[in-house]
Amino acid sequence: MVSQAQQEPALPHSSSTAKRAAASLMDARPAQPLLLRAPTPSIDLPASKPDRAAAAAGKAAAASVFDLRREPKIPAPFVWPHDDARPASAAELDVPLVDVGVLRNGDRAGLRRAAAQVAAACATHGFFQVCGHGVGADLARAALDGASDFFRLPLADKQRARRVPGTVSGYTSAHADRFASKLPWKETLSFGFHDGAASPVVVDYFAGTLGQDFEAVGRVYQRYCEEMKALSLTIMELLELSLGVERGYYRDFFEDSRSIMRCNYYPPCPEPERTLGTGPHCDPTALTILLQDDVGGLEVLVDGDWRPVRPVPGAMVINIGDTFMALSNGRYKSCLHRAVVNQRQERRSLAFFLCPREDRVVRPPDSGAVGEAPRRYPDFTWADLMRFTQRHYRADTRTLDAFTRWLSHGPAQDAPVAAAAST
């Protein structure tokens, strides 16, 4: 259990309008100018011939658009096998609450304790929560409320931001543009983020895709992504210490990162025991920073049991993804997790996926215990891994092994790979 003294200020669940929240935040701190487009390859990769065929098929699938808030019972494509949707254990996951503020306040004993907590968690299931992160409660609340305001729009308005098949950015209802069965009971809005450019990338996305009325909420997410980028680099310093690798190796690797922000909305479900909000999967990215509301629903598979992760007021959930598992030469784990839904309450969460620049070569350090062990995975670029998971494979615990085989046959062939059973 976490004592009240360890917890950050609670994030209230009550909604406010995105525009009012944005106005107050912008008065407090002007947004820094940044840019929308990334150099090729960007997070929305250009389509190859097989990809264009998949996109055409995706357009047909997208004709079946689900308005989940209006479904009286779950349609057949949303029904999951019992093995995937079986109930969770009553025992919560043992997730340490790590104070990352010790990286800045000179507390050497606290720093050693934090590194040990992270090492133990990441070697077993890859999940921990962080406090002392410096992300303001007002900003976090405004970002959650902005998601609520978007997802409550009429479906036709949300469809203006519809994701193009084969890409990452945009709105989707239940991933029906990618899959025909085992659909998740959720809606998502995803967009890219990087800094150091000439105009604000997230503001440009919202205003350019949804119109000038959405510029204010775009500024909220611009600031939120900037804070997530800073926090992710702080966490990289802690991961360096926990693994005993050269200081700066991981932080420098992600300094020019091009990440993905995803807003998740899980409507109340008439038959929650038959479906999932997000199916069992591992994140192919490097690191995920998750802000949950107070409803809960995240579960992690450990020793054959699904273990709930209880929301801690003011804390953020961190989990290791496949890319960092490769960067740690397999020492830190990317584990299966899922999200469940309920019959009475909607649930919101914000996931910031830290990704390397697309052309960066993912390779563990040569020094220390990580470098001394035999290599588990070959060198690869994030662009190739993203293409693989977006177009050929539903990410699970075998993603890196399947990806390694795909690389050995030459990704230029873009031969389809049998899909795994997760979302």
Distance between the termini: 31 Å
Q: Quick one: CATH superfamily? A: B-lactam Antibiotic, Isopenicillin N Synthase, Chain
By CATH, the topology is Jelly Rolls
Our Rg estimate from Cα atoms comes to 20 Å
- Overall shape: it is globular
Q: What is the name of the CATH class?
A: Mainly Beta
Strand content: 15-25%
CATH architectural category: Sandwich
Q: What's the pLDDT, averaged over the residues?
A: 83
Give the helix/strand class. alpha+beta
Order of helices and strands: HHHEHHEHHEEHHHEEEEEEHEEEHEHH
Oligomer: single chain
Uncertain regions: pLDDT < 50 for 5+ in a row? 1-63, 415-423
Order of strands across the main sheet: 1-2-10-7-12-5-4-3
Q: Domains counted in the coordinates: how many? A: 1
Organism: Setaria viridis (Green bristlegrass)
Catalytic activity: gibberellin A12 + 2 2-oxoglutarate + 3 O2 + H(+) = gibberellin A9 + 2 succinate + 3 CO2 + 2 H2O; gibberellin A53 + 2 2-oxoglutarate + 3 O2 + H(+) = gibberellin A20 + 2 succinate + 3 CO2 + 2 H2O
Keywords: Iron, Metal-binding, Oxidoreductase
Domain Fe2OG dioxygenase: 256-356
Q: What descriptors fit this protein?
A:
8-stranded mixed β-sheet, disordered C terminus, 423 residues, Jelly Rolls, 4-stranded antiparallel β-sheet, alpha+beta, 34% helix, single chain
